[in-house]
Amino acid sequence: MNSTPPPSTQFCALCGTKVEHRIPLEDSRVRAVCPACGHIHYDNPKMVVGTLPVYQGKILLCQRAIEPGAGKWTLPAGFMECGESMMQGAWRETFEEACAQVRLIEPVYHMVDIPHIAQTHLFFRAELDTPEFGAGDETLQARLFAPDEIPWEDLVFRSSHSALRSWIADLERGVFPTRHVTLKPLVD
Ligand SMILES: [Zn+2]
Q: Radius of gyration over alpha carbons of the chain, in Å?
């Protein structure tokens, strides 16, 4: 597979020496190997978790205050932290970015593999019991959008876009099967 991203590690986590990117003995992949102390760094994919928060048929989106995508709209989502489950991570990100305390709906609704950047994004459907939300530190404003008000042209992040498209399509049928997409690099 020529789409495997190279290791992102540049310096040894243990001794600070610049690493070499090569295939270690008895391995089959290029790793970041320290020429000084021999430590092998394993760069593994990162998991992003988020929600599609709904209140009375409207979806809660966040307008980003920071790059990437400052000023654009997206679903609340972010990197999972060590020590939490994916549902805890999705709940936390929704609380941090949209100040909303949601009820998550199992199972995970929308799964997005993005192998060329070594990430997998998981979105849960979620419900707000009350219209209580606000702007977290990384958010300019959070706002409810009716399905026909979603600012498609002003969305950032292809995974959010993909999850919202699935949600809109499933909304018409009233059933929400778990969906899976794989995103490939955009070709200029
Ligand atoms: Zn080292």
A: 19
> What confidence score (pLDDT) does residue 188 get?
65
- The amino acid that residue 65 corresponds to is A
Instruction: Report the top-level CATH class of 8-43.
Output: mainly beta
Distance from the CA of 42 to the center of ligand 1, in angstroms?
13
Residues, Cβ < 5 Å to ion ligand 1: 12, 14-15, 17, 34, 36-37, 39
Tell me: the pLDDT tens digits for 109-138? 999 999 999 999 999 999 999 999 999 999
CA of 38 to the centre of ligand 1 (A): 6
* 3-state DSSP assignment of residue 166: helix
Paired strand residues for 120: 47, 113
Residues of the chain with CATH 2.20.70.10: 8-43
The average confidence (pLDDT) of the chain is 95
Calculate how far, in angstroms, residue 44's C-alpha sits from the geometric centre of ligand 1.
Answer: 19
What is the value of pTM for the model shown? Answer: 0.90
Whether the Cβ atoms of residue 178 and residue 107 lie closer than 8 Å to each other: yes
| Residues 135-177 pLDDT 10s | 999 999 999 999 999 999 999 999 999 999 999 999 999 999 9
CATH architecture of 46-181: Alpha-Beta Complex (3.90)
Sign of CA pseudo-dihedral 133, 139, 140, 142: negative
